[in-house]
Amino acid sequence: MQYPEPIAKLIDSYMKLPGIGNKTATRLAFYTVDMNEDDVKAFSQALLATKDKLHYCSICGNLTDEDPCEICRDKTRDQTKILVVEQPKDIMVMEKVQEYRGLYHVLHGVLSPIEGKGPEDLNISSLIKRLQKNNDVQEVIVATNATPEGEATAMYLSKLIKPAGIRVTRLAHGLSVGTDIEYADEMTLFKAVQGRTEM
Amino acid sequence: MQYPEPIAKLIDSYMKLPGIGNKTATRLAFYTVDMNEDDVKAFSQALLATKDKLHYCSICGNLTDEDPCEICRDKTRDQTKILVVEQPKDIMVMEKVQEYRGLYHVLHGVLSPIEGKGPEDLNISSLIKRLQKNNDVQEVIVATNATPEGEATAMYLSKLIKPAGIRVTRLAHGLSVGTDIEYADEMTLFKAVQGRTEM
Questions:
Q1: Chain B contact set for A43 (CB, 8 A)
Q2: Which of A4, A85, A126, B95 has CB atoms 3.0–4.6 Å from B65's, for a disulfide?
Q3: What is the DSSP track for A84-145?
Q4: What is the pLDDT of residues A80-96, one digit of tens each?
């Protein structure tokens, strides 16, 4: 016996999500059958809305349902700083910290020769245009991830932007707060020693 | 900064699923943004279809998109046996084993005084009607789960059906295949000794 068609299709759809295999997808599908009808309708509409209503901000590349995005429109933010991230979700993480009140720019990836991703595949040319148009920007903070690709991308941006007389900085690397030195990996310890600060 | 509204709504919907918290829901929502548009549309439609097209079989209570369900319509199946399960998904599990070729009946729950669930809240009266109408049935196999509520429900059904001269059986309890005796719990071992078979 096969699952009834609507269930089989829903299982297929759940399985397309990351980290969800056959068993979990089946469990979720049967759970969906028993869900409140309004919740299922809202879920269905929310899925379509993410595709229909969301797009990338024409200025910074952030995900938004309006253009320009909320951050680019907000003139109370510090217009002298641009923080460069790999993905839109990195912006949300930074915003939760509430330490940074400047602008953002999303690269939508990192340089990766293995995957054949060069500078022209990233949202870099629009960053350069932004810097040329807007003389207010004094600092570009590169917040790509601490991976080899992230580091290479940071280096590339630094070489590209510094000649224009704009300060380029990188987020500090070091021990996570609450970490025992005993459990830190060598590379992190190395960076923590290099970046040590006066007390 | 808040998430754009479509993302926030999708995160809410994902969080309504069992075992999915805020972080996973956020990850799934951002993943959905990058998904193939056709896949998202299919997902959205599959959700609606589970609510619109699926209902319970009027004979056995199984989930189906046609009435009666595939199994109740199949006259090649053994019409002398009815296997009673708690939930529709239990039928799918039994069918995968391919040992059983009879009919099914879904209770949609178990007797549970704590949750205030009595016999009238379960799909029991339709089982009795089925047995009265259909003189072919010679055996009712009770396959409720091996929980206190499942056992109590099995006992209740047995007392109800046996006087009609129909054989009532219960799935065997014992050690799982591949289990070390060392790691089996006491209750399972007790059942395994009780149900020992000749070699």
A1: 10, 13-14, 16, 47
A2: A4
A3: EESSHHHHHHHHHH----EEEEE-SS--BTTTTB-GGGTTTHHHHHHHHH-TT--EEEE---
A4: 999 999 999 889 888 88
Residues in chain B within 8 Å Cβ distance of A24: 19
Low-confidence ranges of chain B (pLDDT < 50): none
Instruction: Flag if A4 and B31 touch (Cβ within 8 Å).
Output: no
Interchain pair A3, B92: CB under 8 A: yes
Q: How far is B18 from chain A (nearest CA, A)?
A: 7
Query: What distances in angstroms separate CA A31 from CA B65, B87, B184, one per listed residue?
Result: 17, 11, 30
Query: What's B117's DSSP letter?
Result: B
Nearest to B50 among A10, A16, A26 (CB): A10
Residue ranges of domains in chain A, CATH in brackets: 5-53 (1.10.8.420), 61-170 (3.40.1360.10)
What distance in Å separates residue A30's CA from the closest CA in chain B? Answer: 7
> In whole angstroms, what is the distance from residue A46 CA to residue B5 CA?
9
> What predicted TM-score, i.e. pTM, was given to this entire model?
0.75
Label residue B33 left, alpha or beta by phi (over 0 means left) and psi (-120 to 50 means alpha). Answer: alpha
A-B contacts (CB, under 8 Å): 154
Ranges of beta strands (E only) in B26-144 are: 55-56, 63-64, 78-85, 102-106, 139-142
Rounded CA gap, B34 and B37, in Å? Answer: 9
Q: Convert the pLDDT of each residue in A51-110 to its tens digit.
A: 889 989 999 999 999 889 999 999 999 999 999 999 998 898 888 877 888 999 999 999
* Cβ-defined contact of A87 to B28 (cutoff 8 Å): no
8 Å CB contact between A19 and B21: no
Alpha carbon of A130: minimum distance to chain B alpha carbons (Å)? 22
Nearest CA in chain B to A57: B4
In this predicted structure, the answer to whether residue A1 has a pLDDT above a threshold of 70 is no
Closest CB to A1 among B44, B65, B70: B70
Question: What is chain B's alpha carbon radius of gyration, rounded to the nearest angstrom?
Answer: 22
A10, A32 Cβ separation under 8 angstroms? yes
